[in-house]
């Protein structure tokens, strides 16, 4: 089926909750996505950070295929080897005690909120349930995680929104401290605010939040849905902040292209989450876990060193481009701010026409290439961006 027919059918039958790019992707390999008419795109989006090993990595695809031929699903009423193998790898890699598997980042964050409230209820009783999040944060699109998201633009249309969330400006420990009262149970952070413009938190602020949580016995939740699984150059971004949270959430790149979420908890939080406290029909699915185990096996220190090296190469190249005023983020999670008059959405559209797929976040261009990106891929992307930006006039209305 050609692109025009695919787009027309989609427009007829799929609920229009996405502003899709006007292209069809039929297949992919590595960093390259292909359309039905032979279009070739260099993909620096990795499915919004999901395709950590690129498109259709051979080892990953074979592991998923073997498991699908063996056992595709059995529910959490029984044990499976891929699930327990992944749980062991995650706990040993992060130093956390236990893990709960879900199907997405939003579900993982829902589980994290429940776990924090359960800990607080067990130790302090009813009424200590408020979670402090940061202004400009993003934690998901379910009703609870939408409310946890610290952006007014998301708090429309779907009310009433859940109670139990308040917001502090990122970097302002005094404002955050003043929000803590007898009803507070947790603080929830993204170490790099992805949807909020790819803005990394100040390390001192993060350590001050950790100290405050220790003093008040609050659970510190770190949302690593986008920053985790090697995206910033370490397995967790927490490692670069010398931070040990009480709860960490993962998703996106962990599955390598299949839907997964994970809630990692410390000993103190794990103790309260017994049978019946949470659940998921599909969580820990053996096919998904088989793919995730390949991702986990690939992310050794040599691999992560390559992520850091290529992240530094990409950042340095972006900083030299015309009309660029700032490059933010960590590792291979970067945001690009332009001079007034240059719109990130216009840059995205022009890049797409030249065969480069990128993202936006707020006013910034956002780059999330697969972790297997090469130096050659980066140079090619920079050439396209340079051509695009050289052709733009920031003074033109």
TrEMBL record:
GO CC, one annotated term: cytoplasm
Keyword Amino-acid biosynthesis: yes
Catalytic activity: N(2)-acetyl-L-ornithine + 2-oxoglutarate = N-acetyl-L-glutamate 5-semialdehyde + L-glutamate
Binding-site list for N(2)-acetyl-L-ornithine: 141, 280
Protein keywords: Amino-acid biosynthesis, Aminotransferase, Arginine biosynthesis, Cytoplasm, Pyridoxal phosphate, Transferase
Pathway(s) where this gene product acts: Amino-acid biosynthesis; L-arginine biosynthesis; N(2)-acetyl-L-ornithine from L-glutamate: step 4/4
Cofactor dependency: pyridoxal 5'-phosphate
Chain sites annotated for binding pyridoxal 5'-phosphate: 105-106, 138, 223-226, 281
EC primary class: transferase
Single biological process term from Gene Ontology: L-arginine biosynthetic process
InterPro entries: AcOrn/SuccOrn_fam (IPR004636), Aminotrans_3 (IPR005814), Aminotrans_3_PPA_site (IPR049704), Class-III_PLP-dep_AT (IPR050103), PyrdxlP-dep_Trfase (IPR015424), PyrdxlP-dep_Trfase_major (IPR015421), PyrdxlP-dep_Trfase_small (IPR015422)
Miscellaneous field: May also have succinyldiaminopimelate aminotransferase activity, thus carrying out the corresponding step in lysine biosynthesis.
Protein name: Acetylornithine aminotransferase
């Amino acid at each position: 089926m050609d692109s025009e027919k695919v787009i027309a059918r989609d427009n007829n039958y799929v609920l229009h909750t996405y502003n899709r790019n006007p292209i069809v992707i039929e297949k992919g390999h590595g960093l390259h996505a292909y359309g039905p008419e032979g279009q070739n795109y260099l993909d620096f989006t990795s499915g919004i950070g999901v395709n950590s090993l690129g498109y259709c990595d051979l080892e990953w695809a074979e592991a998923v295929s073997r498991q699908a031929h063996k056992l595709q699903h059995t529910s959490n009423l029984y044990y499976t080897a891929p699930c327990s193998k992944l749980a062991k790898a995650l706990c040993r890699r992060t130093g956390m005690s236990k893990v709960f598997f879900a199907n997405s980042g939003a579900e993982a964050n829902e589980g994290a909120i429940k776990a924090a409230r359960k800990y607080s209820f067990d130790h302090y009783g009813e009424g200590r349930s408020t979670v402090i999040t940061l202004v400009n944060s993003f934690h998901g699109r379910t009703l609870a995680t939408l409310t946890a998201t610290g952006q007014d633009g998301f708090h429309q249309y779907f009310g009433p929104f859940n109670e139990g969330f308040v917001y502090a400006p990122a970097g302002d420990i005094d404002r955050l401290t003043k929000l803590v009262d007898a009803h507070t149970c947790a603080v929830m952070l993204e170490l790099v605010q992805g949807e909020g413009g790819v803005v990394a938190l100040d390390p001192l602020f993060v350590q001050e939040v950790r100290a405050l949580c220790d003093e008040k016995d609050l659970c510190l939740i770190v949302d690593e849905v986008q920053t985790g699984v090697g995206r910033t150059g370490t397995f967790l971004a927490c490692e670069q902040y010398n931070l040990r949270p009480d709860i960490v959430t993962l998703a996106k790149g962990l599955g390598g292209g299949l839907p997964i979420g994970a809630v990692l908890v410390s000993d103190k939080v794990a103790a309260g989450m017994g049978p019946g406290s949470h659940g998921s029909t599909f969580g820990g699915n053996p096919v998904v876990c088989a793919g995730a185990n390949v991702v986990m096996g690939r992310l050794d220190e040599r691999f992560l060193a390559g992520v850091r090296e290529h992240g530094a190469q990409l950042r340095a190249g972006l900083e030299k481009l015309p009309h660029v005023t700032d490059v933010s983020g960590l590792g291979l999670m970067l945001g690009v701010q332009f001079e007034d008059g240059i719109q990130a959405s216009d840059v995205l559209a022009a890049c797409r026409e030249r065969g480069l797929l990128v993202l936006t976040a707020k006013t910034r261009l956002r780059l999330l290439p697969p972790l297997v990106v090469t130096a050659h891929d980066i140079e090619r992307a920079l050439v396209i961006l340079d051509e695009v930006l050289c052709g733009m006039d920031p003074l033109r209305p």
